[in-house]
């Protein structure tokens, strides 16, 4: 997170699927090579407030000096997608050059890429890189890509061009479903799966993966912490050690709202990975389940217990949450 | 479309460049150096830790813990996992973190960079470019180092100079006369003409010395081989592969036994195998070996030759380090080039091409080099050796009749 923002120009914006726009961004100091699975950060202004949003970079390399991102309009989100959909060619904004938290290990004997909806974006570059090195390595690559509606799934034709028959798609509207168990059992024992999609998909892959006795470290997921198992809603927390009640609007994180309210916090990753910003949960008032854990720091049992939550990504749904930030005046 | 002629320059700016290409294989260690322990080594500016997994596979990871950057080489190798010696974070052989203290999960972002590794010709090679491009087929050919038809051994020396200075040194062996007078040097090396040829990604320097005295290093080997003492025909055929690998076909055969025509059976043949891995702009891991094609089972000869060549290279080491110090002390000075530097100039040109492919700021130098090669391209290896032999013969003839 240390690199600084640079100015960039929007070169083109076009629809690549229903409600999905691809934006080409030309940084002032030139686009750089990046590892597959990379994302870039955009500095946006939403409702007059500066915010940073991360988007996966589409494709294995910049195209004619531009980074490409593809963004789905999510009415349920914190406003980033709305803002990006408002961009037009010639607009200026600031970005941070791509970095990767979702790195591809190029030496596995086989690969399965699993995408759900707009989660396809980081996997496009991976598919391209893996297809390119396939002549040499012979490592099979399959891509399983699910979406609600076929018309809302970008890059299908491109991916067929890259991977041919190794692409399977499933559109929920047609009653199609990915056969995850078959896909996983067809993968080389030392192969890896790369998953990007909503938590429900990730959960399903994870369950299947564990059922087939595969090692957890060979299942790779991208974590932005932006999607949960519940819709994103505003909620309130009682910060008992500060004697405060803080309102968390739909487009702010708990961490940001606490920070705004003057509650001192420490944090690092802002993706629900490091666990530095966890707060204790003292009690909940309302109907269960109330905590929508969107982190990967707490394990499944800890999330079930819900005695802590990661303030940078996790949220409450309905009811009032009472938390402990560790402040002992 | 018309080609714009580029202004000719006296010399390319290559000698000022200290950089190394990234998209290439570098020898990181001798096979025997890498085992079930953590070996720190800096390769092309990257600090690595090398080790072998229980199945014997060599691995190379970035030598800095993801968490607080303590060198992993200060930690422990536990099976195929590396444990940091500070807080116990563990990494698998691919560099992914598998354990974090005081939590049941592992941050999925936690990893150290893993470098593609391939083992070939007794070296553990590391690829420092984009891992997806790491094709072991592009590892330089040093097969004499483990070919059953050859026997030998070598060493790794750490030289305090830029790797290109060693390339220069090996691409022109006239220095043998002056630096290695007691072993392989002979005035005939500095007096004999030579031929430089180049092809796509190769440079060859051929020098034949016909009807000359064998220097001590070679006289001894002829003796071991049981050949009759007397004048010899001596050859040095230097093969360069960028950025830093040089295999030198060397040998002597009694004059008149047909070596220049291709029958080396009465002589002794060796290959001086060299591969230079930049450590920093002013230091180099210099891997070398000497392989011979006779008395294959005689370890005594292997050891004697290795120690002999060690002595020779110690002389180079001193010169090269002094040269680097002089370069650093005279930052405003440039090199001038002699006729003898042709091989080195072409070698540096090949390195420039690799750099140009990776970095736009080299594009101009790269385009120029590309053009030069296209214009002056000559098949390699070609008839250079034959022409060379004829020339050296005539030279020897002239010397004999003249004196």
UniProtKB/TrEMBL annotation, chain A:
**Entry-linked SUPFAM superfamilies:** 2Fe-2S ferredoxin-like (SSF54292), Ferredoxin reductase-like, C-terminal NADP-linked domain (SSF52343), Riboflavin synthase domain-like (SSF63380)
The stretch of residues making up the signal peptide is none
Alphabetically ordered keywords of this record = 2Fe-2S, Iron, Iron-sulfur, Metal-binding
Record Gene3D superfamilies: 3.10.20.30, Nucleotide-binding domain of ferredoxin-NADP reductase (FNR) module, Translation factors
Q: Which domain of life is it from?
A: Bacteria
A Pfam family that this protein carries is Fer2
Record-annotated FAD-binding FR-type domain positions: 3-105
Q: What is this protein called?
A: PDR/VanB family oxidoreductase
Automatic annotation (TrEMBL), chain B:
* Keywords, alphabetical: 2Fe-2S, Iron, Iron-sulfur, Metal-binding, Oxidoreductase
Q: Does the keyword Metal-binding apply?
A: yes
Q: Which residues cross the membrane?
A: none
Segments for region (Disordered): 367-403
Which intervals hold domain Rieske? 25-126
Q: Does the keyword Oxidoreductase apply?
A: yes
An example of a Pfam family matching this protein is: Rieske
Q: Which InterPro entries match?
A: Cholesterol_7-desaturase, Rieske_2Fe-2S, Rieske_2Fe-2S_sf, VanA_C_cat
Q: What is this protein called?
A: Rieske 2Fe-2S domain-containing protein
* Origin species: Actinomycetospora chibensis
